[in-house]
Specification:
Chain B: Pfam families: FixO. The complex is a heterodimer of chains A (about 475) and B (about 220). Chain A has about 475 residues and is mostly helical. Chain A contains 15 helices and two strands. Chain B has two domains: about 35 residues; about 180 residues, Cytochrome c-like domain (Cytochrome Bc1 Complex, Chain D, domain 2, Orthogonal Bundle). Classes of the chains: A mainly alpha (about 475), B mainly alpha (about 220).
């Protein structure tokens, strides 16, 4: 094995996959957003909202999010251990398998092969594929950590280890099912237990895909991009362990006021409130890192991606626990407010951090400057304005919807029919579509900028011996 | 810290740390009967209702419709009695959902006649011009596949013999194709002539919807 030369081919492959699934997932998102105020777009069973919604969530959450995570993980692992990838061929095979699974997921979900468990909708043969793919990733993660030439593991590596371990546990436990045919299976859990397992999974898959590895990127690429060391190592240690400890108790805040035993709901509320502390530990660590260098928000095009990204993370982690409180949950749950909440995290925090990480990483491995900083700035403003308009529109829609569901006349009867509460939302749904278009334009510029950067790159010599 | 230079130890400790909350809030409740109480009044789905449930799953109805009425005054006013744990003892997977783009379904059974559902599934906009629900008329053009019905009921532990499953299918077919069926006119309107003497996917999903919330009435009627 060569001592120098890191293997970046798999980093590039996953980065391109991320951009591809990002564009595809957003097109589906726009289509669905339109369907919600114009149902004539439900042209065929394959394009009906009920089937497309899971293609959207899987395509972006897994197709885009996870391939962005794999791209940056393979990069950070090699840089932080100063060790070339131990099994580059295995990593490339994992990349092909990953894309095959996502493509098969899109096709089978559109065909209605769907277990309904949110973010675990894939039928059992694809679940088996996912587990194999994850093991292939984990082999490289632990092999490179064992062979590493850097004694201390940096913060980002802790988060990557936690992700690798936790996703494996979550995915296997929630996808235990008994096959009926190749395309149909039933959960081994029933009723309350199925719900409890599902939301333990659902909450933590968000935690360990949309939080933990994104924090790994944040802790690595923020200091790299700004040239400033992380403010407090101790704070990052406390934040890490308390975050991964508390996260797993909170799934039932998705099941407030359902028939799930009340004590599980109450424990979930308590730990949700506690989670504000470790979440804000990272937020504070990020802000203080910039101490005395805030002019970088103007002078360094990458800094604002990271700082706005961590700000949305901070808002997200305040909003989440508050929504878990019974009284507020009774009002907001099942409304479009929650859709706004989720999209602040995904369109704000996750996409901002992955964008900036790619902007830092890809020119580096391509061996040249970014194609256009100006375009990167336009990308930033479009996705910022698009996302904020999108989420605020949905919050207002959710408040109106929740209020209309609860409104009663002086005689005690309901003031609005369900249909009244739906049709009142159409103006918001149109607004949301428009905001989505703005956001999508920003993403197209992002993809174009990366494409141009790579296309014009000279042949890189940085390839490891296989 | 020493652990930061020991990756395998780090992984093991991380796994233990994440398992504490998991064991307490998820694994332990699985072995407590109080987590999922059962009631003799809540019956398993019939083979046809189960096929309908699987179509509900296939079409992702749960993405817009919840199946749990919360113990809140306006919610009970709108939908009916709030949901009880016992009602879900047979539900694999659970279908509570997380978003109400459409109304809750947990008390839909018996609320409208079958004819209402045939018409509404065919074209929600024909009944509610401003509804955004996708039309599902095409379900009536698909003959219901019952080839796995027995295997499904067997896996789900419903306790029916193969003959009982066949009988349930035959009985339901008899019911909806009979001239006596109270929703026959509407069913014939949405079902292509070639399938009017067969069971369709539309028949099954309506059978499922009509089952929802039915048993809880008997359960609640107990002193």
């Amino acid at each position: 094995m060569n001592d120098s030369g890191y293997d970046y081919s798999v980093v590039r492959g996953f980065a391109y996959s991320a951009l591809f699934w990002l564009v595809v997932g957003l097109i589906i998102g726009l289509w669905m957003a339109y369907e919600l105020f114009d149902p004539s777009l439900n042209l065929t069973p394959w394009l009906s909202f009920g089937r497309l919604r899971v293609v959207h969530t899987n395509g972006l959450g897994v197709g885009f999010g996870l391939s962005g995570i794999f791209a940056t993980a393979y990069y950070m692992l090699q840089r932080l251990t100063r060790t070339p990838l131990p099994f580059p061929r295995l990593a490339r095979a994992q990349m092909y398998l990953f894309n095959l699974i996502i493509a098969a997921a899109a096709v089978t979900l559109m065909a209605g092969m769907n277990t309904t468990k949110e973010y675990a909708e894939l039928e059992w043969p694809l679940d088996v594929g996912v587990v194999i793919m994850w093991v292939m990733f984990a082999i490289n993660v632990f092999a490179i950590l064992i062979k590493r030439r850097e004694e201390q593991m940096y913060i980002s590596l802790w988060y990557l280890i936690a992700m690798t371990v936790t996703i494996a546990v979550l995915y296997i436990v929630n996808n235990l099912e008994i096959p009926v045919t190749l395309f149909k299976s039933y959960s081994i859990y029933a009723g309350n237990n199925d719900a409890n397992v599902q939301w333990w999974y659902g909450h933590n898959i968000v935690g360990f895909i949309f939080t933990v590895p994104i924090l790994a990127m944040f802790y690595y690429f923020l200091p790299k991009a700004t040239g400033l060391p992380i403010y407090s190592h101790r704070l990052s240690i406390v934040s890490f362990w308390s975050l991964i400890f508390a996260y797993l108790w909170t799934g039932a805040h998705h099941l407030m006021l359902t028939p799930l035993p009340e004590w599980i709901q109450t424990v979930a509320i308590a730990f949700s409130i506690f989670l504000i502390a470790p979440s804000w530990g990272s937020v504070v660590n990020g802000y203080y890192t910039l101490q005395g260098n805030w002019e970088q928000m103007r002078t360094n095009y990458l800094t604002k991606f990271f700082i706005l990204g961590i700000t949305f993370y901070g808002l997200q982690t305040l909003q989440g626990p508050l929504q878990g409180l019974r009284t507020l949950n009774a009002f907001f749950h099942y409304t479009d407010w929650v859709i706004g909440h989720v999209h602040m995290g995904t369109m704000g925090w996750v996409t901002m951090i992955i964008s900036a990480s790619f902007y830092y990483m890809i020119p580096g491995i391509a061996g040249r400057e970014l194609y256009s900083i100006r375009l990167a700035n336009i990308h930033f403003w479009l996705i910022l304005v698009g996302q904020i308009t999108w989420t605020i529109t949905m919050w207002i829609a959710g408040i109106q919807q929740g209020a209309m569901w609860k409104a009663t006349n002086p005689d005690g009867f309901l003031m609005y029919s369900f249909l009244d509460s739906l049709t009142a939302l159409y103006p918001y749904y149109r607004m949301r579509f428009a905001a989505g278009v703005v956001y999508f334009a920003g993403i197209l510029i992002f993809a174009w900028n990366i494409f141009q950067t790579v296309r014009q790159a000279p042949q890189t010599t940085e390839t490891a011996e296989a | 810290m020493g652990i930061n230079s020991k990756p395998l130890l780090f992984a093991v400790v991380s796994a233990l740390v994440i398992l504490v909350g998991t064991v307490v809030t998820v694994f332990v409740p699985m072995f407590m009967p109080s987590t999922q109480p059962v009631s003799r009044f809540v019956k398993p789905y019939t083979a046809i209702e189960q096929e309908g449930r699987d179509i509900y799953i296939r079409e992702g109805c749960n993405n817009c419709h919840t199946q749990t009425v919360r113990p809140l005054r306006t919610e009970v006013l709108r939908y009916g009695e709030y949901s009880k744990a016992e009602e879900f003892a047979w539900d694999r997977p659970f279908l509570w959902g997380s978003k109400r783009t459409g109304p809750d379904m947990n008390r839909i059974g018996g609320k409208y006649p079958d004819s209402w559902h045939y018409k509404h599934m065919q074209s929600p906009q024909s009944m509610f011009p401003l509804s955004n629900m996708p039309p599902y008329g095409w379900l009536a053009t698909n003959k219901l596949d019952t080839s796995n019905s027995y295997r499904k009921c067997e896996i789900l532990g419903y306790g029916y013999s193969e003959a009982e499953v066949q009988q349930q299918i035959a009985d339901y077919k008899q019911r909806v194709t009979s001239p006596e069926y109270d929703s026959k006119a509407t069913r014939d309107l949405v079902t292509p002539p070639a399938l009017q003497g067969e069971l369709t996917e539309m028949d099954a999903i309506i059978a499922y919807l009509q089952k929802l919330g039915r048993d809880v009435k008997a359960m609640e009627a107990q002193p």
